[in-house]
Design brief:
The chain has 480 residues and is mainly β. The protein has four helices and 24 strands. The chain has a domain at 109-300. It is globular.
Amino acid sequence: MILLFAAIAAAADVGGYVRIMTRPDMEGGDGKLGYWNLYGRLMNEGPYAALELRQGILERKPGSLAPWTDIHAKIEGGTVANADAGNGSLAYLRLSQLYAQAGNVGLQDVTWRLGTLESNFGDLGLYDMRPAQVLFDTVGAQARYQTPGFELTVGGGDAGWNLKGAEYNTVLSGGITARVNVADHFEIGAGGQGYYEPMVLGNRFAPYRTPGVDYEDYARGEVVQSWVMDHPGQLADFPNPEATDAASWKAVGYLGFGGFGPLRWNSLYANYTLLHPKSYTTETYDGESIDIYLHDLTDERTQLNVGDELQLAVVPDRWDIALAGLYGDYEDGDNDLKPTDDDRTFMSVVLRNQVYLSPTVHLLLEGSLAQEVSHNGNTFRDHKDSLFASTDGAADSVGLEYGDDDTRVTAQGKAGVVLNPLGPGIYTRPSLRLLYGVQYSTQNNAFGNSFVDSLDQYNDFGNVERHWHNVLALEAEAWF
């Protein structure tokens, strides 16, 4: 496959993205300042590389209505030799996109696409996220009608491999987006995607429910144990799964405006999602492995995400600002007991200043503040002995809480010098950066690490309490 794509690349138009860094971490971390991009992508991401190839079959002719067609492929992965645990292994690369497209075939201004699909309204750059995106998980067919002031995309296919992996079952997927542009100063867009997984009798990876399961027993991994206690000696009669179907959906919206005075552009994105139900979990009891099917226990999980980013030229060619905020509210209607990532609220703000000492030498200053709140009790450990300080001061070794606080507050600051050979711009690339980053979090050791957190008397390494984290970074990032 590598030789095949090397041959294609030799004849194709090639574009891509690379990110490489070294971040010596003297405090036992993994080279990232914090846990994730809620605190801003800068210094919270690892190495990455992407190569996108376009091979023209019948080239476009500018201003012509003649048919055209081409093939696209994208290879990407998050590991580089000597920079992360993957050590650059090609096993971490994936062919994330492959599609053929054609235009002016049958309908004017329509581009037909067959293969991997996607439609989005843009990037929330400081967080490296695309909140208003549909069809990225689908393989099928798509049509995009595009004129200077209007864009309409309709597509559909199968999302089963993305949602279910090796336990594949067909998940029919369809989506639509529309965007209107007014005088290059205003844009508004909306869209959505729906999923339907049909009932397939006899297929163990199709949607099923196990009747009579209590959520607390499921959360504790004690469904079978509780059933046997109620039905002594009748393990062989544990209820069989009941076939059903499954559905989920996603709605997205976008509002953009700019080109007024110092405001270059402001982008507001939102999505509201009903997540697809999970398949099953396995419990072992008395030497037997028994599957518990989870449709009815995981079919009420919703997510609301709202993100906004504005870019200001405070002093043209001397000082630019990017300010972004992110809010998420995740609810699980089946769960009012256990802290999980499906039951939380988070909010964040990131401010980046880039001052241009010269066209190519810049000073970068960035700060962020974030709060994460668990809806169902304590999930964050604020201290090294937090196992002894959970609700009511009693640890529950088989319980539903992990820590002693339901809230995590995290602040980060980053500063350094940036070399931009192509001149001013927060998103001008390539960028060569020398940065210092500092984080304070109410959670103990709130960054990737290999610390032992057990309070077992046989712990040879001891426990560490640390709320501050410091990292020095040398980074390079480029688009081409």
